[in-house]
Amino acid sequence: MFYYRRKIILALLQKFDGELLSTPLQKYLFLVTRLQKDKAFDFIPYKYGCYSLQANHDLTVLEKMGYVTREQKKNAISWKLVSTDDFMGAIKKEDLSCLNNVHRTFSDYCTNDLIKHTYLNYPFWAINSTILNNILSEEERTKVLQQKKQSDENRLFTIGYEGVSLEMYINKLILNDIKVLCDVRKNSYSQKWGFSKATLQDACEKAGIKFIHIPQLGIESDERRELNVLSDYKRLFASYDATTLVENDKYLLELAGIVSTNHRVALTCFEKDVQMCHRGVVASKLMTLESLKSFTRKDL
Q: How confident is the model at residue 1 (pLDDT cuts 50, 70, 90)?
């Protein structure tokens, strides 16, 4: 499917003479989105700063569709536009204005200067950079590292991914200093890009968060049919509490050990509203255990 956001990537490549290395491409795209009212992409803090997982995936799709090619150049990937279509003419005027603004302001920047600009002006997205020492002074690095959220509080979290991008989701975990994400879906698969097991695990690892899947604490999909009102969910979860959690108590205790050891763990599933999701039942059960009596709970 040719999503509009992919036209933004192609227009960006077209504006920059048809070819960009991966890191500058990500930085230019980030700067474009800072000017957009409705941002085409979200970003996480990664090893070279701001990074859009969705944009990288879209580039791979565009390569398969024959719009771009990738080439390994020493230690970097270069993306080259091969389509002759006019993508700058295919995007909205306001988005083209943002693109022109970024090109006019930053096209003469070398890669390190471009990186430094984003680090200094958007320090949160630099907190996981592996090249801070090469780019910033000690004083500048201190300002970046002050953006890192750290907490000694023992807390159990729950989080759903309904209605948010993968990057927004990962940033929620980072901002709450979550150490481990535990997927309690029966099947760790989603039709929404980014939230199937392999991709979600990779995104977590990029952010320095451990990913664990405990399918034994999930609910079979056929049991989730005919859920229309809150009372339907309550009946399902009462049955789940009395059967699945009892039959799989060793996995619940395994999860309790993970929470106790790592201090800041999030349980995840799809639903935005925790009342509509069995992760809330799991969290409530965990909070009754003696080993977790020092923990508080927060639903993100």
A: low
